[in-house]
Each structure stands twice: as structure tokens, then as C-alpha cells.
Amino acid sequence: MALTATVGVAAAAPAPAPGGKAAASSHGKVTDNLYMPLGAFEDATSGKDPKVKAMIDRKDIGGVQVVVPWKALEGKKGEYKWSRLDSALKYLQERHKKLFVQVQDRFFDVEMKDANVPQYVKDEGGLAPTIDENPDVVTSHGAMAAQWNKDVRASFQGLLKAMAEKFDGKLAGVNLPETAVEVDTKKDKTEYTSKSYIDAEIDNMAYGKKVFTKTQFIQYINFLPDDDDHKRMKEMFDLARDKKIGIGGPDTLPDRPYQMENSYKFLHEYKDALPLVAMAVQEPDINAKDPKTGKPYTRERFTDFARDYLGARQLFWTTEADWLQKPAA
To answer: CA angle at residue 175 from 220 to 156, to 5 degrees?
Structure first.
């Protein structure tokens, strides 16, 4: 799976919220932000990548979502490192832009030894092997923190708590990454089960909202293992509605059947009951073919679908998007 100018639209009449609750958000503008790894942001703002720096500085870009691996924020157990986020926040605040942070605990196309989690997590057996058999890409292997291990999850939640103590109210949003994961059970030694995995995702989601009381906390949801009846996904969306947790996803792929049958239908149903929907348009998305045209999606198609069908108010764009290669209008 894949790792955003403000577009004004007429307000749409809010649909009834699931469960009969009043709508928590109104339809209106979509803010375009950029999305990139923390290292790429640092290369841009230091001048090493002037092209991306110019994108960050554009007047039609509202902010940046940086993807930050767990290891970048914690070295030895309980020893947290905030200088890189401090620098990113300072740079964007000086330009009146917002910083969103995705805390990354899962990694694609990497060897287990190269997964960016603290060394102690690896030493304590807290890393699980994953396999990506997405039909759109060549099968690849990766790794993720074994959040179903209570010690791993306690350490991860310790990071979220410390991060909230430092940055709550300063960051525009903090999100956890996509839920789509396929643990390689033939090689796994962490006692993974799909139930324990989803239970852990729900626990982290609730905990993140508990500690971030001013900054919007967001959970990316796309697919869940062994959830063909979508009962567990509904459970996550119900929690998001009830606890005012934002929901988003790593890919905006209008009308793609597999997505439409999974999280997209829930986003559509719950969009007026959620405090925020934030979607990404990542690298694979800009090359994907629109089922309606057989050609790559256009910027307008991405935006219209994200705004009108999914209820998105924040879009996080890959710097490879074609419209970003041209000067701001």
C-alpha cells in the first residue's frame, strides 16, 4: 500500500449522521497540503532540494504531512527526540502553514533489520514480518511493530503520550498509518492473529485521542485482515464517531471497486459524523487509471471525489503530482 491551494465549493446539504447523531462537520473547502517523509522535508527546507522547497512555500499549500518513523522520535527506551519536529514546526509556522505528523510503525519494501523502529523493540522480539500481495503491485516484504504484543504497544503509547505533552495544540494533526497489513504467518514469531491486531489498532486509536486533546488525532483506515463482513471496520468507525477521532486513508482512488467495498463506503456513510476526514494522494495514485476514462485520474477528479464522496477537508499530495510541477496560479 502507498504511504495537499484551497479549493472552494458551495456548501452541500449535510446527510444524516449514522445513528441519528447531528452532523459533526459541514461541507466546504478542501485544503491542499503536501505529504513526504521527514527526511525529504529536511532536504527541501535546508536547500538540498529547492524544487520541493518551492512547493512547500507555495501560497496555495496549507501545510505538510511528514511521515516520521518511530525510531526518529525514540532512541533508547523512554528517551525521546523532538529536535527534528521542532525544526519542521518552526519552519512552517514562520510561513503560516500547518504541520501534520504521521507516526510510522510499519514499513514496506524493507528487510526486517532495516525497519525504522527503536533497536530495543527489535531486541525484545517486537517486530513482525509482513508481505504485500496487493494485486496492483509486485509482491514485496516488509515489517511492522507487533502492536498486539502488550509491551510493544505500551512503549508505542508511551511515545504518543510524550509527543502529546510536547506538541498537543501545536500540530494540526497526528495520524496513525493505514490498517492494511498482512503478517507473514509462516515466518512470524510474535503470535499474531488478525483479532489481536485489530484489537491493538483500536486500543492505539482510542489512546491517541485520549492524549491529544487539542491537536486532531486521526486514524488511517483502508482494509482489515479477515474482516470480510466488515464488523470490525464498523467498530472502528463507530469509535471514531463517538470519540471524535478523525479518519483518513493513504490513497484516493475514485470508484476503484476494492476500495469502494471497504473503507470508502464507511467514509461516505460516516463523513458528516466525523470531526475530520483527511485523505492522501500518494505516488501510486497519480498513475492509477480512472475506471470511468481508462486514463490517469485528474487533479479535479481526485479532489471532487475526496470532497464530495468521502467528505475530505484535508488532502495530502505527493510532490510528484503534475499540478505541483507548475507555478501556483
So the answer is: 110
As a whole number of angstroms, the distance between CA 212 and CA 210 comes to 6
Cα separations in angstroms, 24 against 21, 113, 273, 278, 311: 8, 43, 5, 15, 11
- Cα–Cα distance between 61 and 328 in angstroms, integer? 9
Q: Is the pLDDT of residue 73 over 50?
A: yes
| Distance in angstroms (rounded) separating the CA atoms of residues 113 and 111 | 5
Cβ burial of 102 (10 Å; 0-12, 13-18, 19+) is buried
Q: What is the pTM of this model?
A: 0.90
Read off the pLDDT of each residue in 88-97 and give the average, rounded to a whole number.
Answer: 98
At residue 100, φ and ψ (nearest 5 deg) are: -110, 145
Say if CB 30 and CB 303 are below 8 A apart. yes
What residues contact 88, with CB distance under 8 A and at least 6 apart?
38, 41, 42, 45, 64, 66, 99
Closest CA to 171 of 64, 29, 280, 94: 64
pLDDT of residue 103: 98
Average pLDDT rounded to a whole number, residues 70-74: 98
Q: Which of 294, 323, 295, 292 is nearest to 305 (CA)?
A: 292
Q: Is 160 in contact with 168 (CB distance < 8 Å)?
A: no
Whether the per-residue pLDDT at 324 is higher than 90: the answer is: yes
Q: Give the pLDDT of residue 3.
A: 36
Distance CA 159, CA 78 (A): 8
Alpha-carbon distance 230 to 226, whole Å? 9
Question: What confidence score (pLDDT) does residue 25 get?
Answer: 35
Average pLDDT, rounded, for the chain: 91
Q: What is the pLDDT of residue 135?
A: 60
